[in-house]
Write a structure and sequence with these properties.
Blueprint: H1 28-46, E1 51-52, E2 55-56, E3 58-61, E4 66-69, E5 72-74, H2 76-105
Antiparallel strand pairs: 1-2, 3-4, 4-5
Length: 106
């Protein structure tokens, strides 16, 4: 029998009898989460062994500060420009959805 803890008493909250039991979650979204997680881990483990144009497809050379991703070579200063482009794209998305969303909805 699962006992509900008495929250009015502050001194009883560390009693081992007042445990939280996690129930098993089942359903479509749980199955999707597990499958996508499995595919992500598989990709994470398989990417270093994939060759692209005679070189390793994904190579992070931390000592040389060079990152090769499928033939594209990125240097540390490229990530600053990439982050700036992503921020501009996010602000453009917010701006466009704000104005065109108001026009579309009336």
């Amino acid at each position: 029998k699962i006992q509900k803890p008495d929250l009015s008493r502050d001194d009883d909250r560390f009693n081992p009898r007042n445990r939280i039991y996690v129930r098993a979650v089942k359903g479509l979204h749980q199955l999707l989460r597990q499958r996508i997680g499995f595919l992500g881990m598989l990709a994470f483990m398989a990417l270093p062994w994939i060759n692209f144009n005679g070189q390793q497809a994904v190579l992070f050379d931390l000592i040389g500060q060079k990152y090769n991703i499928f033939g594209l070579t990125l240097w540390p200063q490229d990530f600053t420009i990439l982050a700036f482009i992503f921020m501009l794209a996010a602000f453009a998305l917010f701006l466009v959805t704000t104005f065109y969303g108001r026009v579309w909805c009336g």
